[in-house]
Specification:
single chain, mainly beta, five-stranded antiparallel sheet, 52% strand
C-alpha cells in the first residue's frame, strides 16, 4: 500500500528537524506584555533566528524570567502577577512548547529564576515577599517540589540573584540596600553566610558569577559602574575588590573567559573589559563600547561562546553580536528576531 501524501509530508518534516538538530539550537524568550513565551531556532554559524511553529506560546500573567533545563527537555517560566512558575515540555523534534498544568505556586512576584548546572534545583526570587523559593526537579517529568524550609527569607525588596557554577553558593542582590547577600546551598536548603552583606553601588540591578567561581559582578545602574567582588572558595563570603566606570545605566553583566560584557541601557551600548585573573581589576578593551541598538534590557552569551544576544526594550527585537574570542570585540550580525513586544529574558539550549 502506497503511503499517503500526508505521510510523506510527516516524513519530510521529521527529516528536516533531524538535519537541523546538529546545525541549530533553540532559544526561548519571555514577553510580559503578551503573557507569552516566544521560541526560536538559531543557526549555530550565522545566529539567524527562525520562528518555531506555534510561537509565541501562552504562559501566565506577566512572565518575566525563563530557564531551559540542561537536558533540553523542559522550560521553566516565572509569572510575576500570578505568583506561579510554569513548566513546559519541549518537543524534541521541532522545539515547540507544551505547558504542563497546574502551575507551581511561588512567593509574591517571582521575578527571577536560576538553576544549578546539573538541573537538580530551581531557585525563584520572590521580590515582594522578599524570599527565595527552592524546588527540586524531577528528572523524568520536570515536576517541581518545594524543598524543606522553602521559601527562605531574604532582605526586603530583592531585585536579582545568581548561583555559583559550583552550585555551592547563591547570591541575592538588593538595590535598596546597595548590597549582596550570600547563602550556602546544601541539597537545595539555603543558609545565610556570616559577615555579609557586601556593599555595592547605587541602583544595583544585575548580578552574575564568573564560570571559575572566582568573582561576582554587579551592575550599578544609578552610578553607571560595575562592582567586582572576590569569592572565598571555602565559605562563599565576598570581598569588595573594586568599582569601575561603565556606559550609562548598566543593566546586565555577562562573562566569557577573560572578558566581562556590560549592557548599558542608557547609552545603548556594551562595555567590554578584560579581567585580571587574581585581582579582578577591569580594563576596558580598545574598541569598547560597542553599539547594542535601542536600550538593551538583557544580554546573554550563547553556549558556543560565539555570539552575544541583547534584547531591546524599545525596539521589540533580539539582536546577535559576533564575539571575537581572541580580542573580545563585538560585531553586529544579520541575526535578529522581531518579538512584537518588549522581551524581558532569554534562555538558550546547548
Amino acid at each position: 500500500m502506497m503511503p499517503s501524501k500526508r505521510t510523506f509530508l510527516v516524513f519530510i518534516a521529521m527529516g528536516l528537524a533531524g538535519c537541523g538538530s546538529s546545525s541549530t539550537h533553540t532559544a526561548y524568550v519571555t514577553l510580559p506584555n503578551l503573557n507569552a513565551v516566544a521560541a526560536y531556532r538559531i543557526n549555530n554559524s550565522s545566529a539567524k533566528f527562525t520562528n518555531i511553529v506555534g510561537s509565541p506560546y501562552p504562559a501566565g500573567n506577566s512572565p518575566s524570567s525563563v530557564v531551559v533545563h540542561p537536558s533540553g527537555r523542559f522550560v521553566y517560566v516565572s509569572n510575576r502577577i500570578d505568583n506561579t512558575i510554569s513548566l513546559f515540555t519541549i518537543d524534541s523534534a521541532i522545539g515547540s512548547l507544551h505547558e504542563v498544568l497546574p502551575r507551581t505556586p511561588a512567593g509574591l512576584t517571582p521575578g527571577f529564576l536560576v538553576m544549578d548546572a546539573p538541573g537538580n534545583f530551581l531557585f525563584a526570587l520572590n521580590q515582594i515577599s522578599s524570599s527565595v523559593s527552592v524546588y527540586s526537579i524531577n528528572s523524568a517529568s520536570g515536576a517541581l517540589t518545594a524543598v524543606a524550609g522553602s521559601p527562605f527569607t531574604t532582605a526586603p525588596n530583592p531585585v536579582a540573584l545568581a548561583i555559583a557554577p559550583s552550585g555551592k553558593f547563591l547570591y541575592v542582590l538588593n538595590a535598596n540596600l546597595s548590597a549582596v547577600f550570600a547563602y550556602t546551598i546544601s541539597s537545595g536548603v539555603l543558609q545565610p553566610i556570616a559577615g555579609l552583606p557586601a556593599q555595592v553601588g547605587n541602583g544595583a540591578l544585575a548580578i552574575t558569577v564568573d564560570p571559575a567561581n572566582t568573582f561576582v559582578y554587579v551592575a550599578n545602574a544609578t552610578d553607571s559602574t560595575v562592582s567586582v567582588l572576590g569569592i572565598n572558595s571555602s565559605t562563599g563570603a565576598l570581598t569588595v575588590l573594586g568599582t569601575f566606570a561603565t556606559g550609562i545605566q548598566p543593566i546586565a553583566v555577562a562573562v566569557l573567559g577573560q572578558y566581562l560584557y556590560v549592557a548599558n541601557q542608557g547609552s545603548s551600548n556594551i562595555s567590554v573589559f578584560t579581567v585580571a585573573p587574581t585581582t579582578g581589576v577591569l580594563t576596558q578593551i580598545t574598541n569598547s563600547p560597542f553599539s547594542a541598538g535601542g536600550a538593551p534590557s538583557f544580554e546573554l552569551i550563547d553556549p558556543s561562546g560565539l555570539f552575544l544576544y541583547t534584547g531591546s526594550q524599545t525596539g521589540n527585537v533580539i539582536s546577535a553580536l559576533s564575539i571575537d574570542v581572541s580580542t573580545g570585540d563585538l560585531t553586529a550580525t544579520s541575526g535578529s528576531a522581531t518579538t512584537g513586544s518588549a522581551p524581558s529574558s532569554m534562555s538558550v539550549s546547548k
